[in-house]
């Protein structure tokens, strides 16, 4: 339904552009949601995008549309905008979004935009630019309600009505001490429920969950999801409240990180590359295949050591795919379970032996089942007990080793502070390929007496 | 840091349990956050969990703890609770959480609990139980602020203070007509900014995004993330406002769905199975490996057709792993990109040819690169031009076909309304294995004149 809507929207815009029906276009641009416009923009040439953008009246909407563009598209688009226009739009946007947008721009452009923006907004943006993008500091908004712990509920309501009307997401009310240090939290709802003369200190919660400015954004997302909160306060090294991270930014992080983990495990880097040209995409995917190329060449040298056996027992070759395939697939199962378990906090790095021994046991059970099955097929086809036994045992070995490698690799990488998702994908499948082939030929050579 | 905290918490609880230090335990249970308690509970025996649970004073906290348990753990735990106790706890919980918890219980238990609960709450829960779990109806709360469109801002504030104090997430103010149909939306913040006598009709937004009760929860999550909203209104077939889905539930959905997609693609089903026994886990993972077992056996029959060639050119076998590996890896790249692209709405099902031809081009470029490389290695080792050429061409074919299969399969499955993630994983790798081996031996047989 959504998709059909987009198709119709893009169709009408293209038709109206051809007819030059500016007043119609103006109406569409001003009544359609920025999120939908951003989808339509992806299918339009740059010049049309600029023409349409100028028809939008509300600077807040212009800002929302800029925020929804992919980074590459934004960089192209922004070249044609003048500094005054950008400064005006940015003034109407949440400061964390502004910081995200101007972060990648050339330094002198950033500088001139900040100069043009009204004092307060530009100070806030500059404050945010000092933190790395993927930390709590880089994604927080310095836009929250903080009150001394000794104000009463009635005073708090009064002060919110006077001073905090601009706060975008007024869910929580943070209590701070004389040094602006965070000491408690309450909610707007709580404020109206307690008797008006109650001091904040008496009804606030003191077990307030907070993060530091340098906390990784993934950890921030985990905390927000875990405690089911709508915003998490961000404090500096001295526990002074400096901002909040709101749940809408957390959603984006969770989506991004989950997609990143999947793409990394598949060996496509961490970013979505479909917006890029074929040549660029191929260049990004190329190095990730290198591990499996090297692995394949190593497997080749392993097998070629057994060349003389192969020329006598040529049917040995026919079982290579099934042994590699079974090991590879069960190893991918283990690796995915562990990478995902680490990402969601179901496993900790220190759960090494429980997790690995569990996977080992599962690998052995599955190996015994499929080893038996494939051994029987081999026996039916060739009626050579030695061969059937070699194939069966190889499948068991390959699948058991695969679960070991698949579960140990991400845990070891995580312990060494290497992202388990990125390291695990190519490493695990390649290692399993080599080990499987090696076991197979060693076992066959022994049992067939080659 | 979080993890260390949990370890310390579990350690102290165990120590205090051994010493029977009830008053200490009571303190810990009442001051620790339910999310942290739920982690500690996972490491404790059932009897201790019950003992500790009874020490919690706040029924709301008891409810939060129940909500955070995994389904299996909850079912075990709840057997020992009596109906009165459960009814009391459930009365203090959001109705959507209650519906989630009692949904899987035996029907007569559900019935007796609902009977004991106060009228209003139990009606709401029963209302929710009628919708499937994974639809907007199943995850909504019937707890929102709806006002006629002709009330003024001042009247709206008064009515909220009188009647809507219990609303848990009062971000939005929905405007309804005389038939309770949804016509607009505004925010609490807006209410205090406009002049008090302005009617709601004049400052509300009329382009309000809503979902139907039967909208799939994944679609609901996509909409909330896309429009950056904190709650989406749910309407019935006649556009009557019946509930809202809030952002905290959406976060859980996004996390679940992303994890599900990864697990499905790895062929481990859709659920996280680490909480289950080794035997159960092995049983769940077993059938997913069947596809690759069948695939391996088919590959075996393909290769065994070339047995006589293999006995003359035994070195052919040594290249099987590298050809299978390169195809498999590049195919996984394509499949992951497409599955993820479909899930996040970057591709539509109707983008078939643009997506597939793009992947085809990338597969050919990568195939030419690695085919050349591996061909050179083959030439260096055996100095047989025919072999080197066969190996190089096979890598190109295998990688190109792999990108085709990897991109077409999820698009075709999605078009047939089969979940692309679940179908793609085992299918793609198995298909690529067979096709790669087939091409390799056909090309080699032709070029080497076997």
Describe the structure.
With about 450 residues, chain A is mostly helical. Chain A folds into three domains: about 1-135, MgtE N-terminal fold (Alpha Horseshoe), CATH 1.25.60.10; about 145-255, CBS-domain, CATH 3.10.580; about 285-445, Tetracycline Repressor, domain 2 (Orthogonal Bundle). In chain A, about 65% of the residues lie in helices and about 5% in strands. Chain A has helices at about 1-20, 20-30, 35-40, 45-55, 60-70, 70-80, 85-90, 95-100, 105-115, 120-130, 135-140, 155-165, 190-195, 200-205, 215-225, 245-265, 280-285, 290-305, 305-310, 320-345, 350-380, 385-415, 420-445, and strands spanning about 145-150, 170-175, 180-185, 210, 230-235, 240-245. In chain A, the strands form two sheets. A three-stranded mixed β-sheet of chain A has the order 1-2-3. Chain A has a three-stranded mixed β-sheet with strand order 4-5-6. In chain A, helix 8 (about 95-100) packs across helix 10, helix 15 packs across helix 16 (about 245-265) and helix 16 (about 245-265) runs parallel beside helix 23 (about 420-445). The model of chain A has no long low-confidence stretch (mean pLDDT about 85).
Please write out the topology.
The structure is a homodimer of 450-residue chains.
Chain A: H1 2-19, H2 22-31, H3 34-42, H4 46-55, H5 59-68, H6 71-78, H7 83-91, H8 95-102, H9 107-116, H10 119-129, H11 136-139, E1 145-148, H12 153-163, E2 172-176, E3 182-187, H13 188-193, H14 200-203, E4 211-212, H15 217-226, E5 231-235, E6 241-246, H16 247-265, H17 278-285, H18 290-304, H19 307-312, H20 320-344, H21 352-382, H22 385-415, H23 420-447
Parallel strand pairs in A: 1-2, 4-5
Antiparallel strand pairs in A: 2-3, 5-6
Helix pairs in contact in A: 1-3, 3-5, 7-9, 8-10, 9-10, 15-16, 16-23, 18-23, 20-21, 20-22, 20-23, 21-22, 22-23
